[in-house]
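Take one protein record:
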Amino acid sequence: MSERRSGYGQYCPISRALDLLGERWTLLVVRDLLVGTTRFNELARGLPGLSRSLLSQRLRQLERAGLVERLEGEYLLTAAGRELRPIVFALGEWGAGWTFGEPRREELDAALLVWWMHTRLDTSELPGRRQVFHVRFSDDERRFWIVVEPGGPSVCHVDPGFETDVTISSDVASLYQVWLGRLPLEEAVRSGRVSFAGPVALTRRMPTVLRLSPVAEAVRSA
């Protein structure tokens, strides 16, 4: 059964905006579109709690409202959709200051964290056409590999068969807090909560390679 929601019945631009954007998951879909996710399967992987049918419904709603257009299999924000950027990230700044504390257990999804991380790695200063990062968690038996190639980065849940350049080891909560700006990477490495294994020429570049979440600066400031 599709989710239905009546409007607020108020002639006000705020209520009109909430009629469109106030439904569950809608702003998180917009968030992911704003940071560059454009394909349905990638949106689904970045929103694992959202069913594919409801994701389709939300995207159709955004298309009908003129915030998103679909071109050659990609969902692209229109000018109206792109103008939501300061609003969405202002919510992130407010949340960082007033609602963001220690992570809750149900929020710590290792697979989602690696999926988020793989889109933010900057390997432009590393040698070779392919870089492979092995992510190991001390409290999650799953293993992850991030493979960065000229065609784009990908996440593998089994060994891709390439030589690993750097192994990133951590517990899930610590790496989440580093990536979101709550725990400085230098402090996490110094305390042993995060470690990098590999050639020194590569591991010493990891603070530059591992670009943090788009909201990390707001979290640090808060």
About this structure: The CA atoms of residues 20 and 61 lie 8 Å apart.
